[in-house]
Amino acid sequence: MADKDITRRTPGEVGAPGQPGYTPLIPQKKGLARALDPVAGFGVTISSFFKPTVTEQYPFEKVPPKPRYHGRHQLNRHPDGLEKCIGCELCAWACPADAIYVEGADNTPEAQYSPGERYGRVYQINYLRCIFCGLCIEACPTRALTMTNEYELAGPTRRGMIYEKQDLLAPLGEGMLAAPHPMVPGTEDDDYYRGAVTGPVPEQIEWVAQHRPDDPSLEALRAREGAPAEKGRAR
Ligand code: SF4
Ligand code: SF4
Question: How does DSSP assign 106-135, residue by residue?
Fold first, then answer.
């Protein structure tokens, strides 16, 4: 028996666990431990009997998720209000679910949306596809794309679950000037990435005042106490 090949006894039969002399790496249980094996899985169930029951009353009481929870995406801005997205599409290429669609376009002197040459003209995320894995935010070279803690993303229509750029763009922070507007004079895109720009400068405010005198962000900036001109000069 010892030298008989037991791996395949008859044609079509599934092979036996191993060749003669095979030693399993996992130690085999014996005696009582082996007899209790079939009910060992109930250990977790039985131990749960003695733990307190926690029932979250969602949606009446909303428990905040953990700080690093992967929720809805956000397209961030630089401190002067220019957009961080440069339309490079790396996030779309990294997405395993093909949930992101990006179309980049050239910035022009009349319409500068982000530092450098390019900006994201079209930006869409299809939340019917997204699995919230976060690979897109890892791929983004400018930290334009991050994820918020917002998790209530249900909607009544398929079209409504495709978020457009305006749905994803971060709201203007205090002291920011809505894009488009020129970069801080004398800076390059590298200065923005290094954090050298901390807010809009008078030249940018003046540009917006000339081209969009009714812009709400301009009004908010003017309404702030102090002179914004003293803030934000790069370097
Ligand atoms: S979180 Fe994952 S699935 Fe969702 S858009 Fe980003 S890469 Fe795609
Ligand atoms: S979000 Fe980031 S990775 Fe995606 S297109 Fe914009 S800059 Fe590129």
Answer: E-BTTB--SSSSEEEEEEEEETTT-----H
